[in-house]
UniProtKB/TrEMBL annotation:
Domain Ferrous iron transporter FeoA-like, chain residue ranges per copy: 1-73
Keywords: Iron
Entry annotated with the keyword Protease: no
Name of the protein: Ferrous iron transport protein A
Pfam family, one: FeoA
SMART domains recorded: FeoA
Organism encoding this protein: Parasulfuritortus cantonensis
The keyword NAD is annotated on this UniProt entry: no
InterPro entries from the UniProt entry: Fe-transptr_FeoA-like (IPR007167), FeoA (IPR052713), FeoA_core_dom (IPR038157), Transcriptional_repressor_C (IPR008988)
Length: 74
């Protein structure tokens, strides 16, 4: 399952990141690393970005970027 498929208030643990080196570095800089638990806060309407929480930090990600992140639902 990918991060963009999680419902609001659902949690998951990052299993893999399928992205180029630049995007992978950017996501890593935001705290999105393998084994990290994330929670989806909300999806914007009309296929807009999504808000996720990593630890105590909220992030806004494009759904296309979130589709590159495999998660295991918890």
């Amino acid at each position: 399952m990918t991060l963009n498929q999680l419902s609001p208030n659902a949690c998951g643990v990052i299993e893999a990141i399928h992205a180029g080196q630049d995007l992978r570095r950017r996501l890593c800089g935001l705290g999105l690393r393998l084994g990290i638990r994330v929670r989806v806060i909300r999806h914007s309407p009309l296929n807009g970005p999504m808000q996720i929480r990593v630890g105590h930090t909220d992030l806004i990600l494009r759904r296309s970027e979130a589709a590159n992140i495999d998660v295991i639902p918890t």
